[in-house]
Every structure is written in structure tokens, then in C-alpha cells.
Amino acid sequence: MLASRPLERNLKPLWIGTALLLAVIVAISTYSSRPSLPESYRYPFNSNGQTSDAFERELAFYQERIRRNPGDGMDLAALAGVYLRKARVSGWSGWYLLAEQSAQRSLANLPFANNGAWLILAEIASARHDFAGALQIADQVLKQRNDEGAHSLKSTVFLAQGKLEQARQEIEPLIQNLPSLRNLSQRALIYLAQGKEALALEDFRRALSLEEPGDPYGSAWVRTLLGRYYAQHGQQVLAAGLFAEALRISPQFPLALQMLGELETRTGDYRAAEGHFNQILFRFRDSATLYDHAAFRGLARIYKLKGDGAQAERFWVDSEKTLRRDVNSGAFGHQRELAQLLLERGRAVDFPEALKLAQSELKNRRDAETLSVLAWALLENGRARQAEKAIGEALGYGVKDAVLYYRAGQIQAALGKTEAAQAFYKQAMVIDPKLDKRARTMLGLGE
């Protein structure tokens, strides 16, 4: 079961105060000096920071209805939906727990004709990376009636599993019936995973043209995804503008904070990056979020690049503890992320475990990213020929990922295939011209 869990931060009070002050300074700087953006990427509606207030009003509304009628299954399902939307945005495990509990109560009181509650449980299962469980619930719903939410969820799960054509087939009818920001963005992610970048960008732009004022978090999410694409393709100014716009729409949106912090690390703006990672960590100081491990990893990378190995190790430890807690408890499936951390940290003693984690994760998520991590783990364990096979399968998906191509080059170099290695390195630089020494060091690609 998902639960709020204390974090073992081991932070000194002085460091906490300094970090909080830095986060505030960086936040003010981010919102006051946003990079210029094309008009089509700007949020067309009023954004005055009232999204949290709207959530509180909606939450209070359903809580009051349930207080008056505790057995109303539909109101409990609606309340679970409010909790789940907040969980998606914040990543806080407590919202997932509340959503799960409310959905279960809803089904106990209304076991029939309650697809909304079932789909909330399915989405929570997907967040745990219990993809089989999520698909089972979605199929159960679809046996009763054709449900857009069930098809959308199946598309998300198939994408995570690397079943790209199945993912597209689930989302395509929804777009044909009623295109929306959400389903167009989902298809854009599928196209990116297939390397069909022109089609993906077209879908992202079309999605933004259909955004509505009642879904600010969705608007922030799409801009963050689009910013990630541009950041991975060397267009750093445009990426920074999109991340900043996402944060203007939804202040404290952790995915945008993470992406912006990683971009700032790549460009050498360590102070700003540190501030953004700290904003993630100090929003929920006494409980865990899905983004904590990435924020700790981001801080470790900063100090590694600064040459402060002791401080970097401190944050590697914090990130590792967070990931191990998730993996061991089964709350969220972070085996791949833990394998990545162990490999990037660079301690040979950890490489065998990283390989086992990657092999285990491949049974659940056979996508290009998991195959890339597996190839990396095989290479570090001296199994270059097997690494070549894994990276070849990853490349076969078609995704245009500079890190993937650079890793393929390293594997070819380890096999003594110098010419092939250089070809992969060259292709990596075509995809991301800003994949310089600092970026490679940050991403665990060496120098």
C-alpha cells in the first residue's frame, strides 16, 4: 500500500536554512526573468497562482458532501479523483494513499457501475509499475462498456512496456473521436519513442492549441514534455523557456523543477540548479515524493561536477536510500532508476547488483530506456557482446536519443570496432549538439 514515509535526509539545520533561502531566490529569479517563447508556446489564459486554491475548494466540496452522506459511492469516487489529480502533480505519496483509500471505500459502497473508482485503482497500480494489474482492471472496465479512460490508461501502460504499436492503437480512436490536450500528448510521446519526431511535434503543438483554462496542470505537463524534447536536442534556450512557462502556470510543479534543474546543471548554472532541486525536496520535508530520488541525484551531479566528491557521495546516499525504500516496499517500481544510480555513481562493487536490477526490470518494461540501462550494466560487468545485443534492440525502436547513441559508441569501442564507435558518437552529436564534456560527465557517459 502507498504510504507517507519519513525521509532520512540527515541534513544539518544550517544547510536546511541555506538551501531554503537559495530555493526562494531561485524561484523569484525563474518567474521574473523568463526566457522569451514563441507565442504558440505561451499559456493563453490568466495564471495567477490560484490553481492550489481551486483544488482546495474542490476538495472541501466533496469532503463536505461525504460528511453529510458517508456512504455515497459516487462522491467517494469523485473525491478519489481529486486526490489522484493532486498526486499526479505533486508526486506526494500521501495523495496516492488517500486516492486509493477513497476509491476502495467507493467500491465497497457501490460495487457495480463504478468504473471511475476502478480506473483510479488502475492508475495507482500503473504508478507502482504493476502494469499487469493496471491492464487487468482496464480490461475489466472495457468488458462492461467502451471507456475512454480505460483505453487511455492501456495506452500509457503499453508505452511504458515498450509496446508502441499497441499503445498507438489504444489512443488513436480517442483522437479520432475527440482530440484533446491529453490524448494528443500521449500520441506525441509514442511518436517520440518511435523516432517520428516531426509527427510528435505536430501533436504537441496541436495539443497546446486545444488546452483549456480548467486544466492548468495539464498545460504545465505538456510544456514540460516539450521542453524535455528540446533540451535533449540542444535547443536549451527554448527548453528553459518552456520549463519556466510551466512553472508560471503551475508553481512548484516538480517535473518542471527537475527538468529545469537538469538543464541548468548542463549549462553550468549550478546555483540555479541547486535551488530548483531543493524546491522539490523542501515542499514535503517530512514525507516522500516520487521526485525526491531525482532531486538528490541532481544535487549529487552538481557536486561531482564541482569536484566535491564527499558532498556528492552524501547525496548519492540519500538518493539510493529513497530508491531502495521504494523498491523494497513495492510502493513504486524504481528498479531501473536504482540501477541507473548505481551505474552512474561508478562504484564497481555495485555493478553486479545494477545488472540484476536491470534484468529484473526488463521483464516488466522492455522499452528502449530499460534496454539502454541493461546494456550499460552489461558493459560495466565486462559483457560487451551482450551489451551490443541489448543496445541494438534499444536502437531498433527508432528513438532519437543522444545518450543511447553515445552508449552504443562506447560498446563498439569496447569491442574494438573503432569506426563503428565513431559513427555512433557522430550521430549522438547530430541529435544533441550540446552533448559536451560536462553533459557527458553528468549523464554517466565519461568525458
UniProtKB/TrEMBL annotation:
Give me the segments passing through the membrane. 12-32
| One annotated Gene Ontology cellular component of this protein | cell outer membrane
Start and stop residues of the TPR repeats: 402-435
Q: Name one GO biological process term.
A: receptor-mediated virion attachment to host cell
- Domain of life assignment: Bacteria
Xref: Pfam families: TPR_12, TPR_8
Keywords (A to Z) from UniProt: Membrane, Repeat, TPR repeat, Transmembrane, Transmembrane helix
Q: Which SMART domains match?
A: TPR
- Do you know which InterPro entries this protein is assigned to? TPR-like_helical_dom_sf (IPR011990), TPR_rpt (IPR019734), Ycf3 (IPR050498)
- PANTHER family, per this entry? TETRATRICOPEPTIDE REPEAT PROTEIN 6, UDP-N-ACETYLGLUCOSAMINE--PEPTIDE N-ACETYLGLUCOSAMINYLTRANSFERASE SPINDLY-RELATED
Report the protein name in the record. Answer: TPR repeat-containing protein
